[in-house]
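[Q] Does anyone have a clean structure-token version of this?
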Amino acid sequence: MTIVAVTGIALFFLANYLCRFLLGFTGFLATLIIAAAIAAYMGFSVIRVLQRMPSPAEKSRLLWLYGGFLGALFLAFTVWLFMGEGYDSVVLATLFLHYLPYPALAHLFLSDGVLERFPGRKNRN
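[A] Here you go.
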């Protein structure tokens, strides 16, 4: 689970750099597309690595590592912005709305209903 979470974090950096800086595709739609792609990768990877449905503890560990690291990253970025410009509730809401899809979509793609649709499980119980 740790490797999948770390890979998801690395994909966060690479996909955002590629999409936002190299291709110039920005905004909330870019956030949703990137978050959905990373969440789909994580769900598929969990099924392929375990070849079974993950336990609730395994899902929880993955989500805490992934969501916690990104949350700390967004918090540090928010503090850095507020140190330079001062507190702004619009900036805070915008950053929160750009953070929220990452753990929310990861949680959705790691749900039992979605994981059952991914190929790679040996047993269907």
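[Q] Thanks! Anything notable?
[A] The longest helix spans residues 56-85.
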